[in-house]
Design goal:
Elements: H1 15-19, H2 24-32, H3 38-63, H4 65-68, H5 75-86, H6 92-111, E1 123-127, E2 132-136, E3 139-140
Helix pairs in contact: 3-6
């Protein structure tokens, strides 16, 4: 069979080189595909949410339960709590990031058990100044 002078038979797997090769995303996918699968992506995503949630957990607890159980709560504090919790005062971008962080913190609270300080508390008695004192976690009562 006669072919034109500028024609050559090339295997299909070599066509990539003729057509210009892979782009950056394809190259990254080719390298990471054997390493990462769906479980790795899920773990990575969960860990990112956990890290963000850990940063915001104190703000979430202080802005909700901390307001209600502070011992000095007024109705004014309760009404002001959502604005204090969700508004940063730095613009809409920071407010959105703050909201996502608080959402990640709430997700963490629903996903794992929290530490219980009562399970590690120690209670004892001391004497020394002629009196007996009850001691809880090293603090005289």
């Amino acid at each position: 069979m006669m072919m034109p002078a500028n024609y050559s038979v090339i295997a299909e797997n070599e066509m990539t080189y003729v057509n210009g090769g892979a782009n950056f995303i394809d190259a990254i996918g080719a390298v990471t595909a054997p390493i990462w699968d769906v479980t790795n992506v899920k773990t990575f995503s969960t860990n990112i949410v956990t890290l963000i949630g850990n940063k915001f957990i104190g703000k979430l607890v202080d802005g909700t339960l901390g307001v209600l159980f502070s011992g000095n709560t007024t109705w004014g504090d309760v009404k002001a709590a959502p604005k204090k919790l969700f508004s940063t005062g730095n613009g809409i971008g920071d407010d959105i990031a703050n909201f996502l962080g608080l959402t990640a913190a709430a997700y963490n609270l629903g996903r794992v058990d929290v530490d219980n300080k009562a399970s590690s508390a120690s209670i004892g008695m001391t004497q020394g100044d002629g009196k007996t004192h009850v001691v809880i976690d090293g603090i005289k009562i």
